[in-house]
Amino acid sequence: MKYRLLISIAAFVVMAVLLFWIQSTLDSVKPDPKMPDCGKIRQCLKAESAWPPKMQDCPAVLAPFTVRKRVNNKWGYSMNYEGCSTEQIIAPRFDVAEKFGNNGLAKVKNDGKWGYINLKGEEAVQLSFDEVGDFHYGLVPVKSKGKWGYTNAQGFPAGSTRFDAVSGVWRDGLSAVQIGGKWGYIDPKGETVIEPKFDRAMAFSNGLARVETAGKWGAVDTRGNVVIPLDFDVILSTKGSDLLLVARNRKYGYFDPKGAEIIPPLMIKPVEARRDGSGAIQIKLNEFAFAPEGGNVWSDTVPLNGWFYHNAANEKMRFDENGKAQIWRKGAWFYISKQGRLIPESAQG
Fold first, then answer.
1. Which of 10, 142, 274, 331 is the most buried (most CB within 10 A)?
2. pLDDT of 77-105, one tens digit each?
3. What are the C-alpha distances in Å from 241 to residues 112, 171, 204, 244, 256?
4. Which has the closest alpha carbon to 324: 249, 284, 268, 247?
5. pTM
6. In the chain, what are the domains?
7. What is the pLDDT of residues 116-169, one digit of tens each?
8. Taking a C-beta distance cutoff of 8 angstroms, is the pair 90, 117 a contact?
């Protein structure tokens, strides 16, 4: 009986190992759905000067399989897709050559000038710039004669090179640019949308951009209207929320993307804030008690570390001059004890 059990266990182990090996072998021969077949590779390589309309995905197909090749101090490119092609696709002729991106373009340099080429070696961005940046939403920052501008893969200049600096980032259809030491915003055509008048200007998010003048931060909308006054020492985006955290004199508060003040800057330290599934704002204080998560009615005792619905009916909150939280109930303000009990404001002396 004893030996039968041992034999059964050994047979089970051998069978498990065998099944694992078979499955691994099958997996190794399965085609990777992300990898194009050889026919597609060859079609793209044989295409004429411009890929036919049905082959516009060729840049994305070929880009991952191009490798840089150096010959006599010049750089070119070859395919490196085993079983399909290892041939040269762009002859070595560049002083500097970077990898191809997913857009099918590569940054290259010759005779001190930068530009971009496509997978056929054609200049997508003319090699005539002193510096070029990275593509973002189809536009790339370029520098010539000390001035910056934008261009696209067809060489269309966005407002020419007339800026002292550009952010290189496009959000909500705008990019920050600098002229005469001041920052403003332009659209993809290079036209000024928000006049350069800020000392610093951040990228847009949720329709707002944080801007700073004379050490004070605020926020503007995509038309340049001041939505949050330039009156704060700090304005920060919050992770996982569209709310903006503000600080003044080391006291913290919150604004929403429309510029509405959610919590005045009176907190002695930041709190966690979020929106629930319906879009209602919830606020959580680590050291004070609020209504339980999912609820919106106060009770005489409330659990610590719960979520508070800021905009629920008949519920209000504020912070005193010392940064302590208070809630409004039955026509009066109360503090919340560490035990979760409501203490009348008058009892604090």
1. 142
2. 998 887 777 888 999 999 999 999 989 99
3. 45, 17, 15, 8, 9
4. 268
5. 0.72
6. 42-127 (no CATH), 130-232 (2.40.128.630)
7. 999 999 999 999 999 999 999 999 999 999 999 999 987 766 557 899 999 999
8. yes
Q: How far is CA 22 from CA 17, 28, 30, 204, 295, in A?
A: 9, 10, 13, 53, 54
Q: Is the Cα dihedral 226, 229, 234, 236 positive or negative?
A: negative
How far apart (Å, rounded) are the C-alpha atoms in residues 327 and 257?
25
Q: Report the distance separating Cα 327 and Cα 316, nearest Å.
A: 6
Q: For residue 97, what are its two tokens?
A: 């050559």
Residue type, 252: Y
How many Å apart are CA 234 and CA 249, to the nearest integer? Answer: 10
What distance in Å separates the CA atoms of residue 255 and residue 215, rounded to the nearest whole number?
Answer: 19
Q: What is the pLDDT of residues 192-249, one digit of tens each?
A: 999 999 999 999 998 999 999 999 999 999 999 999 999 999 998 887 778 899 999 8
Please give the DSSP secondary-structure letter assigned to residue 269.
S
Query: For residue 201, with 0-12 CB atoms within 10 Å meaning exposed, 13-18 middle and 19 or more buried, which class applies?
Result: buried
Among candidates 299, 317, 321, 320, which has minimal Cα distance to 308?
Answer: 317
The single-letter code of the amino acid at 216 is K
**Contact predicate 318/310, CB 8 Å:** no
Tokens of 29: 């021969």
CB 182 within 8 A of CB 201: no
Cβ–Cβ < 8 Å for 309, 292: no
124's CB contacts (< 8 A; 6+ apart) are 105, 115, 116, 117, 118, 153, 154, 155
Instruction: With H, G, I as helix, E, B as strand and everything else as coil, classify residue 83.
Output: coil
CA-based nearest residue to 180, from 172, 192, 168:
192
End-to-end CA distance of the chain: 84
Give me the amino acid identity at 30.
K
Q: Is the pLDDT of residue 12 over 90?
A: no
For the four alpha carbons of 70, 72, 75 and 77, in that order, the dihedral sign comes to negative
